[in-house]
């Protein structure tokens, strides 16, 4: 699939400079930039979807953890006293 993108001269120059410095083609730089952007956008959409699903589940069940319960658990991660995630409650 061939696609064209219109870029202003300043951006073209910046891309070419970066390509030269990294010993890559300008096309490679643009593909990488677009791939990175799409991956971040997909991750944001996934996070948003997960958050909305969690909110729906909370409204239906009332089950939750408090912020302090989460912090207490996370503060132990990577230590010798690492705790399991506590069970949700109403």
Give the arrangement of secondary structure elements.
Blueprint: H1 9-22, H2 26-61, H3 67-74
Helix pairs in contact: 1-2
Could you give a quick summary of the protein structure above?
It is built from three helices and no strands. With 90 residues, it is mainly α. The longest helix has 36 residues, at 26-61.
Short key terms for the protein model shown above:
64% helix, 90 residues, mainly alpha, 3 helices
Tell me about this structure.
This protein has 90 residues and is mainly alpha-helical. The chain has a domain at 9-62. The protein is built from three helices and no strands. The protein has helices at residues 9-22, 26-61, 67-74. The mean pLDDT is 96.
Roughly how many Å is the radius of gyration? 23 Å
Sketch the topology as an H/E string, one letter per element: HHH
Query: Helix segment count?
Result: 3
* Secondary structure category: mainly alpha
Mean pLDDT: 96
| Distance between the amino and carboxyl termini | 52 Å
Shape designation: elongated
- Give the total of beta strands: 0
Largest sheet: none
User: Residue ranges: pLDDT <50 for 5 or more in a row?
Assistant: none
The helix content is: 55-70%
Strand content: under 5%
Oligomer: single chain
